[in-house]
Design a protein that fits this description.
16 helices, about 75% helix, mainly alpha, 3-stranded antiparallel β-sheet, about 400 residues
Length: about 400
């Protein structure tokens, strides 16, 4: 039977979320009614998951931007959510805001209503919690919106930078397939008729061409399994993830860009939490969860332990080579002066300027390397094909 994800409300006004198996949506709705639950939303778990995935990017940023504007204008939280619900772009967005509004109307804090929704996360809910407690919810929402906008912009820049190299690699792969499955087999029949003693490069190319012709499907299946297996290993096995990252971090230019991205994420995330009023230990724990690199998550976790023991965060960060000297210096100055959030903001601004420049530098280096790689492959295949002909004509 299909699994249905639901959001419902008890008679006391408290919301409840969960999943249950049922033969149909109507049967699931009746089962929840028998448990004295008022159903707010119900659908298959897969449908709900896809809808949440679509809302997890631009929607969250726009929600906090608009919410900050309304709260700053003096409109209370419930009314602000009601306005955003009416102005929502689609039914999924409207339903989510409705759930938040109804939970707040029932007396729950906004951060508790957001807790458990996968597209908000601990980082956001913690900042909202501190903003609500300090009476600065509008400022907290604005900080979140700016942070999410920065993350989206960096993501777009990186994806844009990777588009050309990926396109070139796909084109090279397609060219190799055409050469091995169409061009090379035509010459194979010619060489068989001439009864020549073929050079080793020619024999390798002909063998690859024959293999691709017969087992092209096996190559595709093997590549798919390899990619899926590597992705799952990276996601699930920490040792494999550390091994891959240790290699990537040592690659010239690319490794530097990865380090800059993680340092920028750390500075942005930690800075926004400290400005919101989170204690340093809580902020470090949350930052360790949002950084993309396993190596950076581990070093931030070590920094959290050091701060808990009465040491400075900069002392632990300086042990590794993951942070640049200027970043370490600014963090130390911030710790000594009590203005760590301001120093982190300076670090973030500097990386906002340098990451696009480094990305362009990486592209300028990759373009000639990829071109050379393509020419090398084509040249090797062409030379392998023409070597026997030149030998037959007395060229060797």
């Amino acid at each position: 039977m299909p699994v249905y994800a639901y959001t419902a409300m008890r008679f006391d006004g408290s919301p409840v979320r969960g999943r249950l198996e049922a033969a149909s949506e109507a049967a699931a709705d009746k089962a929840l009614e028998r448990e004295d639950l008022y159903v707010l939303q119900i659908g298959t778990a897969e449908t709900r998951r896809r809808a949440e995935g679509r809302m997890s990017k631009d929607f969250v940023q726009e929600l906090f931007t608009e919410l900050a504007t309304l709260l700053d204008a003096g409109i209370d939280l419930v009314e602000s959510l009601r306005v955003l619900e009416l102005e929502a772009n689609n039914s999924q967005d409207a339903q989510l805001i409705k759930e938040l509004r109804e939970a707040v109307e029932a007396g729950r804090p906004l951060e508790d209503a957001m807790d458990g929704m996968p597209f908000f996360g601990k980082e956001i809910t913690s900042i909202v919690r501190v903003g609500s407690a300090s009476g600065q919810l509008a400022e907290a929402c604005q900080e979140i919106a700016q942070h999410l906008e920065w993350r989206a912009r960096v993501g777009r820049d990186i994806r844009s930078a990777l588009t050309y190299p990926i396109f070139v690699l796909v084109a090279i792969a397609g060219l190799v397939v055409v050469l091995l499955t169409i061009v090379v087999p035509q010459f194979a029949s010619v060489f068989d008729g001439l009864h020549l003693t073929l050079p080793l490069p020619t024999r390798i190319v002909l063998a690859l061409g024959e293999f691709f012709q017969k087992y092209w499907w096996l190559v595709l299946v093997a590549l798919a399994l390899l990619l899926i297996g590597a992705r799952e290993l990276y996601r699930r096995v920490g040792e494999f993830r550390q091994f891959v990252e240790s290699i990537v971090l040592r690659v010239p230019v690319i490794g530097g860009l990865v380090k800059m991205n993680n340092q920028a994420r750390m500075a942005h995330s930690l800075g926004i939490m400290l400005r919101a009023g989170l204690p340093v230990l809580d902020a470090l724990r949350l930052v360790a969860d949002v950084l993309p690199s396993e190596a950076y998550r581990r070093i931030i976790g070590s920094a959290e332990d050091a701060v808990r023991s009465g040491h400075r965060m900069s002392e632990v960060l300086a042990v590794s080579d993951l942070f640049s000297p200027s970043v370490l210096r600014l963090i130390l100055v911030g710790e000594e002066s009590g203005r760590l959030d301001e120093c982190l903001n300076q670090i973030a601004k500097r990386f906002d300027e340098s990451i696009p420049r480094k990305t362009k530098q990486m592209l300028s280096l990759l373009e000639p390397l990829l071109t050379l790689f393509a020419l090398t492959i084509v040249g090797f295949v062409a030379a392998s094909i023409f070597m026997p002909m030149l030998s037959l004509m007395g060229g060797f």
